Amino acid sequence: MTSHRRLRLLLLATLAAVAVAGGEEEEAFCDAAAVLRTDRLTVLLIGYSGRRLPLLRAIAGAYAAQPLVLAVVVLWSNPSTPESLLSGLPPAVTLHRTASSSLNSRFLPHPSIRTAAVAGADDDVLPDAAALSFAFATWQRSRRGTLVGFFPRSHHLDLARGRWAYAAAQPGRYSMVLTKLLVLGVDLLRIYTCSPELAAARAVVDRERNCEDILMNFVAAEESGEGPVLVDAGSIRDWGDPRNDGAGGEAMKAVGLSSTGGTGHWEKRGECITEFHRLLGRMPLRYSYGKVVAAVAGGEQGLCIKGGRLVRCDQE
């Protein structure tokens, strides 16, 4: 047997082992918790890059200090990270090392979750207490299965190409919210992770290393029969937005978990919508209109550093 063939077989065996480990992990998390609190929420933070660990520690600690937050769970999705680098998290934060780097890991229904609602967030986004509390209160008033978020996106049918396209939110209309920060029910985590019907769609997420947020929007729309809810309250510091000056933007984005960047990113996400539609045999995404506002504000709420000042990322 040639060395090239041995290397190829070793690689295939490694990938298969990772897939099996990921499947076993998912099965272990699919039992529902007995009692869930409805007055607090759990924060799920997804982490991958060792370079962002100092920021992750600070953000996890800030979440844990908010009275609304019962627990913070860090889902660390880089199996190759040395254990020694993962020390120093605040005592109130639970660290779970996932079995693989799959983006599906961000929706694991971790057994330490004891609340009916969770706030899912990237490791470079931090809302103030007003933003998080308002999103949670809006979720409490919403229909079961609804996603409540801050960053809207949309889809539309590209008639010329005969496929779905992914787009920025149209004026007053959107059909998805990004999972960089949103509030959702823990039951959606179990549906996403544990439903056999979604196995092929989860495999698309693994193959493309993208689109887990789109698939969650599919799951939520199917469950609620409605589109997501966009909220506008408080402020959100967004270190990963490329509109930050200097290293705060592109450098942070470059070490993220998902593949991003350029028109290819938007094209790939349109392909994901089309593929999810084909696999599920239906299009559950629904449009929503307007947003729930706590104070006079406009545009996306992410805060970036521009010219040495902390301002809205969409501010020129």
From TrEMBL:
Q: Which GO CC terms are listed, alphabetically? A: membrane
Zinc recorded as keyword: no
Q: List GO molecular-function terms, semicolon-separated.
A: glycosyltransferase activity
Q: Where is the Glycosyl transferase domain?
A: 42-292
Does this entry carry the keyword Cell membrane? Answer: no
Hey, what's the signal peptide range on this chain?
Answer: 1-23
* One Pfam family here: Glyco_transf_64
Which of UniProt's keywords are assigned here? Disulfide bond, Signal, Transferase
**Record family assignment:** Belongs to the glycosyltransferase 64 family.
Q: What is this protein called?
A: Glycosyl transferase 64 domain-containing protein
Q: Which organism is it from?
A: Oryza brachyantha (malo sina)
